Amino acid sequence: MTWAGVVEREARSVLLRVRTDEDAIGLAQARLHAAWTGTTPRLTAQTLDELYAPLLRGVDPLAAERTRAAIDRVRGWSPAKALLDIALTDLRARHAGLALRTYLGGWSDEATVAAVVTRGPRRQRLDELARAVARHGFTAVKVKIGTHVREDIAVVRDIRATFGSDLDIRVDANSEYTLAEAVFVADALAELGVLHFEDPCPLEPREVRREIFRQSRVPVLADRVLDSVESARQVIADGARALSIKAQRLGLRTADRIRQLCEEHAVPAVAGLSGESAIGALAGLQFHAAFRHFGSIPAEESRFASMAHDVVTGIPEIHGGKVVLPAAAGLGVDLDAEALDRFGVRYPL
């Protein structure tokens, strides 16, 4: 898979399992690219082991405020905190005997999801999307653009011509265009019926994002600048038309606070793409299904369905463009011991 600045031939993740003395567990997983997060799975594992594990030993994991207070003794935000937040929430949901979506909000048991077309040659991308639509029945797609203005427009035009008006199209430039290029592309995308233009150009400083929010003929969806509730508040104030909320990046608590902010300001939100395997994807999909507010934009975690290997059992399938989420408690999946032994590297080594 080809993303902005990263070509993947394998998926390296950090998998966190929190275990109590009574053998209750909570799981979380994240693919941490240094180019995106400033860290790696190995560094994050070290952070969890050396900084956070000592703070949490002896703390009741069901006491959410106590665990947060312990974790927040290390100042600042980090992917390790987000992983801990998800794993501990999963543990509490399992203890309550509730699916995570029910524990969080309980709106739905399924999630509509979009296909994801990453970068690559135009013909390859069309073929990839055709296979995904035929296999999974997708009715929506997120297309990665941002490499070459006219080629990107041509790809979207080909997708529209091939799949017709019934396919919802959203695009993501990963902030690769200049402001002028983004405005030019937005004009063309508007003619093709594209619904959202994610991160068309760098959304900092604020003057730049206010300008693209004002000029773009396609509603702009903000992603990369969202790393806190305050950043979300500023982006909404500056005129964002939609927000991408990534529970895997933010943790469920911060993600939900941003979701509430979006509701208050009538700003649509999407459970955004992190390209996760099953555990990480289910954190986002369960979050999406928990709340009515996410109903207007399909969730973006669909890549897990095409991965050849995983380390869990009970992975849900995508049919008719939807995932029926597991009925089991928490995230709804359990670790596959054999697969974990085959693919996993325990930390510390």
From TrEMBL:
Keywords: Isomerase, Metal-binding. GO terms for molecular function: metal ion binding; racemase and epimerase activity. The keyword RNA-binding does not apply. Signal peptide: none annotated. Pfam families: MR_MLE_C (PF13378), MR_MLE_N (PF02746). The keyword Metal-binding applies. Residues 123-219 form the Mandelate racemase/muconate lactonizing enzyme C-terminal domain. InterPro entries: Enolase-like_C_sf, Enolase-like_N, Enolase_C-like, Mandelate_racemase_C, Mandelate_racemase_N_dom. SMART domains: MR_MLE. It comes from the Bacteria. Belongs to the mandelate racemase/muconate lactonizing enzyme family. PANTHER family: O-SUCCINYLBENZOATE SYNTHASE, O-SUCCINYLBENZOATE SYNTHASE-RELATED. This is Mandelate racemase/muconate lactonizing enzyme C-terminal domain-containing protein.
